[in-house]
Amino acid sequence: MPVIEEAVVNTNSDQAILDQGMNEQKVNELYKEYQKKMYGLAFSFVKDRYLAEDLSHEILVKCYLSRKKFNGDCSLYSWMYRIAVNHCIDFLRKRSRQRDFLHEDFEQSHIAVVRTPETEVLNICEKEELRNKLSLLPSMYEEVLTLYYFKGQSLKEIETHLKLNLSTIKTRLSRAKKMLREMY
After folding, report:
1. Would residue 47 be called left, alpha or beta, if left means φ above 0 and alpha means ψ between -120 and 50 degrees?
2. Which residue ranges does the record assign to the RNA polymerase sigma-70 region domain (predicted)?
3. What is the CATH number of domain 21-102?
């Protein structure tokens, strides 16, 4: 039972800390006390030191700005932890959306490539050179590459077509690509 009383006392002291005038010294003390904890939490989400530092700073600023919303129902750390987790999740969502937009922009920029007679001739020459190099590969590797890249078949379709294990097809595909890279 004493543990519960300590938690209540601790919550009350947390509330008292925030209710007191927040002078610069008090803010710095709280910042130093919670900075490493918020950094560790942010790092567990983003796995990047510099990004975690930025996020932990943003989290602590956010906590400071919304300190009036802390009502003392839980400990200060629990309240800050919840803000930190939500902030990290929001950050990851935004970053994911930004990647999607960048990926779409990248695809559109490749679609918008101007086709000139020179680029067409170069494409034809590159394809011809690739086919010549493919013909130099052992037939089992050439067959897998042709089915996968030129005929557009999935690994499962190649598995049923050639009556081979999926792992065998993956191995042959990997070895064939490696052989082609060495030829270039």
Report:
1. left
2. 30-97
3. 1.10.1740.10
Sequence ranges of the chain with CATH classification 1.10.10.10? 117-183
Tell me which residue of 77, 82, 91, 16 sits closest to 48, measured CA to CA.
91
Write down the mean pLDDT value for the chain.
Answer: 81
> SS3 of 112, please?
coil
DSSP label at residue 68: G
Residue 38 CB-density burial (10 A; 0-12 exposed, 13-18 middle, 19+ buried): buried
Decide if 38 contacts 83 (C-beta within 8 A): no
pLDDT tens, residue by residue, 49-93: 999 999 999 999 998 898 888 888 888 899 999 999 999 999 998
Positive or negative: CA dihedral 115, 119, 121, 127: negative
What lies within 8 Å, CB to CB, of 59 at 6+ separation is 38, 42, 80, 83, 84, 87, 88
> b/e for 19-37, b at 16 or more Cβ within 10 A?
eeeeeeeeeeebbeebeeb
Say whether pLDDT at 113 is over 50.
Answer: yes
Which ranges in the chain are annotated with CATH 1.10.1740.10? 21-102
- 117-183 maps to CATH 3.30.565.10: no
